Amino acid sequence: MADQYTNDKDQYTTDQNPNPGQNLQGQGLKNQVEGKAKEVAGKVQSGVGNLTNNESMEMKGKAKEAEGNVQQAGGKVENKLGAALNPNDPNNP
Fold this sequence. Notes:
By secondary structure, this protein is mostly helical. The chain has helices at residues 20-51, 55-85; strands at residues 3-6, 11-14. Strands 1-2 form a two-stranded antiparallel sheet. A hairpin with a 4-residue loop joins strand 1 (3-6) and strand 2 (11-14). The protein is rod-shaped.
């Protein structure tokens, strides 16, 4: 976390984040949304594979669905960790 000097306003600033948990919460939400999208896409792919008797497609869909579920769980952990790091943030659940 390097300090830097900005010339625009001739003031000394630092790139340190005063709310370290905020980044985790943003990333957690992103992972939950992306994970849900993967889960839904996997369900669709698995269903199409089932309807067309394409076992390979069905298994790939189930794997994608599982990957989405894991990503969602990771996002929930990131959100909880971010909230724990910023207990005074009014946006915490």
